[in-house]
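It is worth pausing here to work through a concrete case rather than discussing structure prediction in the abstract. The textbook approach is simple: state the sequence, then state the predicted structure, then interpret. We follow exactly that order.
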Amino acid sequence: MHSVFNPHSPQGRAVATLWWAMLGVGGAVWIAVIALMLIALLRRRRSAEPATAGVEPPSARRAFVGWIAVAGVILAGFLVYDFVLDRSLGGRASPELTIVVTGHQWWWEIEYEDSIPSQCLVTANEIHVPAGQLVRYKLRAADVIHSFWAPTLAGKRDLIPGYEASVSFRADTAGIYRGQCAEFCGLQHAQMAFYIVAQSPADFAAWRAATSAPSPPPTDSLASYGKSVFMSSGCALCHTIAGTDAWGTVGPTLSHVASRSTLAAGTLPNTRPNLMAWIANPAAIKPGTHMPAALLSGEELRGVVAYLETLR
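Step two, the predicted structure:
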């Protein structure tokens, strides 16, 4: 269950604890207010003396000021608690991995930083991380305001154009954790998901090594034909495929796209029929998407899909 009530990280547990504390104290205050209101109503009905209009007893004034003070103390306490919690989460040990996450309408660009620029790895919509290790996420927006939120792992952080935010957290155990854009960013805001795939350190190292290497050229005749169609059409102008002449930066990189579990930022499972439908008419699946329909014949479309399925 991808929920703040099912945390799988120290940061997620801290946020959940704060939420339960706010719910408990807020619930107690609500119960107290309702109880006092009922007591006042019962006393008013039992009183035989008519109310004196415009006269406020000193005890009522003291009670009014006292309850305002209590509310102020509670709010100030939560302000301090939230501030200390935020500072403690931001001041943890140095991260072992830094990932740059850029929000686009409506997909996520993922870049793994490295001291050697040629070893930087770029992918899309799926974030692989080593379980048990602290990861820092640098958050940027390419167009409008987005919000990065993985409910089971950490709180929300806004991505604001021209400003870089950051959040650090670790996944306690291996697993797949769903995330979502939590700030309305346009027509397909609801279809802007991402997945954090936490793996053992050994599995993560193997994944990173495999993903950093270009996919081998296709050997199947249909896939080879599809590659030539891809490179000669507008596809190569928008997308990147490592090891080829496709270096477009408008859309998500398609290097190793067949290894991803979903298409279009979590909109569809990554299957052959869905891939064909997405390429043929993406606006029918995700209205408002900036990806145009591919003007391909049936044979050309089958070839392109066969080629993309080799990119593992």
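Step three, interpretation. The helical segments are 10-46, 58-90, 201-212, 221-232, 235-238, 272-280, 282-285, 298-308. The mean pLDDT is 88.
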